[in-house]
Amino acid sequence: MCELLGMSANVPTDICFSFTGLVQRGGVTGPHVDGWGITFYEGKGCRSFKDPAPSCKSKIAELVQAFPIKSQAVVGHIRQANRGCVSLENTHPFTRELWGQNWTYAHNGQLKGYKQLDTGFFRPIGATDSERAFCWILEQLRIKYPRKPANMKAMFKFVASLADQLRAKGVFNMLLSNGEFVMAYCSTNLHWITRRAPFGEAQLADADVTIDFYKETTPNDVVTMIATQPLTNNEQWQKIASGSYVLFKDGEVQ
Amino acid sequence: MCELLGMSANVPTDICFSFTGLVQRGGVTGPHVDGWGITFYEGKGCRSFKDPAPSCKSKIAELVQAFPIKSQAVVGHIRQANRGCVSLENTHPFTRELWGQNWTYAHNGQLKGYKQLDTGFFRPIGATDSERAFCWILEQLRIKYPRKPANMKAMFKFVASLADQLRAKGVFNMLLSNGEFVMAYCSTNLHWITRRAPFGEAQLADADVTIDFYKETTPNDVVTMIATQPLTNNEQWQKIASGSYVLFKDGEVQ
């Protein structure tokens, strides 16, 4: 299995604190040693950092921890391989263009019978069940909506119905974003927390690191974090019910 | 205008030396201050580093210079904006999937009448003439070759015929790679050099840096560099004729 990390915020926000917690799970406090990746949106563009090496030993992970890239939408993942070998092309998140937008996706879980998924125009590059499922979702969206729909909430509801079908094939926890929305679909484990004023201190569960968000934020900031398991041990995270999803935009539930 | 940088090699090779020369042109020895990007292939996967900030001041460029990422196929670009604002989504190289492969592209030049190019399935994300031209090339390839053709040299010849049409709209120097092949199409300026045993010293034209390739290589290494202008001042670079292209694989001309 793997761990997911997502963020949605109303102002460009860095994710250094949470990423520091997550990378510990890549070989120190967790067994997820088969690579990691993180995608930051900046407007319509996005940048990904990925490494097939364990996150706790990755030079590129050190850079991401040290370098405060600010974003309003982030999708991250650390991997414990089940389907597909350990290689760059099998490392999440995956990004593809649809409707002239970058869509980014990460999956935690394992699927059976995924080779029958018809991905149509979107062909997988790697060998994972995850990427094939992503291509299948995009193809279903392309068929249903030849152009970007005006009603994006209805579109994400349709994505959830596709995710339900994938969940029937195994375990399918997912993060999906176009840079504006971040969707969190839960099959087994996915938690979230929204931080807003008054901000307080948070203590990482996986490393001896504390942050005082009061010093790092302004009173109007709204920042939602999404993670497979809560990343802090002194805050109340909400678990998403199995088969449900939560949609975020600018840090707020939609 | 912009500057292109490409590499094709028969063994995974780092590009730190040439990249050090190129970044100088992003604000020190050249006027290309509107961002830079570089894509490294690792097998079927690829990783991109991009920054809308001038390369000579970029933290991420410092990382790429310091961190010897080894690859057999590289496409890089530094930008002086003409069409499209300075932003991440307008920063080259651009990567899209076709035939289940990552295709990476960078363009130097400027096109007129590019908004009429029908990009079909591949929709531009940013606002550059370059990305639209790339989407148009991919769409023409998708129509002509629904599956990956067995004869890739014929396919690249077809790409050159498309590039000829784009060159008729202005200036169109291009690098295109699928990780296996690197194609260099010249409209006005594009140079290349193949380094092989016996290796000697090279002196960067844009910075006071010398490298002794003999110390950095093995006798069987074959490494071709492609650049808008020669990056070294003590080696013989070859200029590609206007309207011509050179195709490389494993460092060798195909």
From TrEMBL, chains A, B:
Domain Glutamine amidotransferase type-2 residue range list: 2-254
Species, as recorded: Agarivorans albus MKT 106
InterPro entries: EgtC-like, GATase_2_dom, Ntn_hydrolases_N
Keywords: Glutamine amidotransferase, Transferase
Full protein name: Predicted glutamine amidotransferase
Pfam families in the cross-refs: GATase_4
Segments crossing the lipid bilayer: none
Lineage: Bacteria, Pseudomonadati, Pseudomonadota, Gammaproteobacteria, Alteromonadales
GO molecular function list: transferase activity
